[in-house]
Design goal:
alpha/beta; TIM Barrel; eight-stranded parallel β-barrel; two-stranded antiparallel sheet
């Protein structure tokens, strides 16, 4: 079993590994595959698991974690979505909604606690005020009681997260898709959070898939079919990757892990073998000249931190 580098979320004093299993898609191919993915992650030393009610995978995780010592892993889930009774969800960041969501998660997971609790996607229906003035005080209470720690929003944009960080005492953020090989729009926010000791978890490293699969007519970006400009940029990245014989997915994960603001990479899997594939991508040796060319041709912001050694996870 690999022992991965770890870092500490300064505001919460919680030590976390530099890689986590994102469980959004573990159920794509059914129960057995989902359980196998979680077991594979744990066997390989990935002891940080990230889920949410929206993913509809908590029950699978509860089965997979049965008999696993609770102190042997870190578990994060999210609040803000409640079942609507028709197979979908409604957005609810009220006090009652937070407590009901957490109770639902614990029941599905068959656990008595989670470690990290995120406010999930309050930007989708512009629930900033409700999440800040109603959801946050409940999470703050749960944190002060030692029920959870740390707490913070999780979403696909940095702008609202930055506003949250200036308005309340959050420990960490889950930021998906805004610092990747395809875009580096969150650099200023990441620097501010780092200076303030706020932890950051990197989600959406493959921008919903295009940085894992490469360009195609069905390539996904931000959960939708990739638009022409994104596909064109992905093709340029692929071209440089081919010249250096670097897998696109390896470049994608290593670029993100190079930013010192990130405590953890949350990397998903929908097949058991993807867990090992993601670890191999982190260890693949990429020459410095590759990264410099990405900057020189304007594909990567010159201010973005770059990996400083080939295969930094060796």
């Amino acid at each position: 079993m690999t022992v991965f580098p770890r870092s500490t979320i300064a505001k919460a004093g919680l030590e976390v590994p530099r890689i986590a299993l994102g469980c959004a898609h573990i159920g794509k191919f059914g129960r057995e595959e989902a359980i196998g993915i979680v077991h594979s992650a744990l066997e390989l030393g990935i002891d940080f698991l990230d889920t949410a009610p929206l993913y509809k995978t908590e029950a699978y995780m509860g089965e997979a974690l049965k008999g696993v010592p609770r102190d042997s892993y870190i578990l994060a889930t999210k609040i803000g979505r409640l079942p609507d009774g028709r197979g979908g969800f409604i957005f609810d960041y009220t006090r009652d909604g937070v407590l009901r969501s957490l109770e639902n998660s614990l029941n599905a997971l068959k656990l008595d606690r989670v470690d990290i609790l995120h406010i999930h996607d309050p930007d989708v229906e512009d629930k900033y005020e409700e999440a800040l003035h109603h959801g946050y005080p409940v999470l703050d209470e749960l944190r002060s009681q030692g029920v959870v720690s740390p707490i913070g929003p999780g979403m696909n944009q940095w702008e609202m997260e930055l506003a949250f960080s200036r308005a309340a005492d959050f420990d960490c953020f889950l930021l998906a898709g805004r610092h990747t090989l395809l875009e580096q729009t969150a650099l200023a926010a990441l620097q501010e959070w780092r200076e303030r000791g706020i932890g950051v978890f990197a989600g959406g490293i493959f921008n919903s898939g295009i940085l894992a699969t490469g360009d195609s007519e069905i390539a996904r970006y931000n959960y939708e079919v990739a638009p022409p400009d994104i596909r064109a940029k992905a093709r340029k990245l692929e071209g440089i990757c081919k010249r250096y014989r670097v897998p696109l997915n390896a470049a994608a994960v290593q670029f993100v892990q190079a930013h010192p603001a990130y405590n953890t990479l949350v990397v998903g899997a929908d097949r058991v073998h993807h867990v090992a594939d993601n670890l191999a991508a982190l260890k693949f040796e990429i020459p410095q000249a590759f990264w410099q060319e990405l900057v020189d041709v304007g594909l990567v912001d010159a201010a973005a931190p770059l990996p400083d050694s080939p295969g930094a996870w060796q």
